[in-house]
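dumping this here so i dont lose it
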């Protein structure tokens, strides 16, 4: 598998870079501040129209276990500041590149799924490695996409969880996933 240049068939996906994951918050992610800087560097490599951002916002009509999830985390879910994008990321957000999701996978947003379907290769960054990132990657693979897993631009809640995700995904490399 070769090294991919940023071309028309390549997109950057930035998953859930919200204030809820910053240090001191209940959903704090390991190395989040370093990841923000690395995502900003990655953003500079792409044309803005090839970059897509997601934000988790609890559904008003959750189904199944999401009802319980949203109840357990209602204090976080109702906090506008925690739900907002991290300030360093916010400056790149437009109405055309930001997508709301209410499940782990970014592809639960059908508009985003349709946009990403236009691309062959997806660079994946963001949080949380062990749930939203992982779920999104599996859905992208099922769509037939090649994944570039940007290790230094992805954070999990704990380093050992990040490592476990990488170990799981190594079974899909290099056919489906390339690690950078």
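and the seq i came up w/
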């Amino acid at each position: 598998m070769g090294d991919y240049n940023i071309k028309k068939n390549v997109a950057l996906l930035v998953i859930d870079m919200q204030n809820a994951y910053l240090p001191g918050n209940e959903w704090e992610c390991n190395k989040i501040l370093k990841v923000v800087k690395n995502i900003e560097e990655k953003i500079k490599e792409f044309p803005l129209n090839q970059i897509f951002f997601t934000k988790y916002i609890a559904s008003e009509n959750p189904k199944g276990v999401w009802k319980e999830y949203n109840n357990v985390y209602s204090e976080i879910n109702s906090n506008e500041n925690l739900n907002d994008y991290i300030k360093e990321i916010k400056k790149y957000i437009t109405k055309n590149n930001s997508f709301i999701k209410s499940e782990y996978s970014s592809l639960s947003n059908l508009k985003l799924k349709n946009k990403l379907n236009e691309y062959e290769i997806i660079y994946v960054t963001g949080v949380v490695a062990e749930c939203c990132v992982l779920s999104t990657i599996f859905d992208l693979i099922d769509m037939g996409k090649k994944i570039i897993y940007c290790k230094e631009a992805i954070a999990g809640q704990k380093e050992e969880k990040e490592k476990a995700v990488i170990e799981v995904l190594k079974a899909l490399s290099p056919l489906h996933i390339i690690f950078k």
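The helical segments are 32-43, 65-72, 74-77, 80-83, 87-90, 110-116, 129-142, 159-170.
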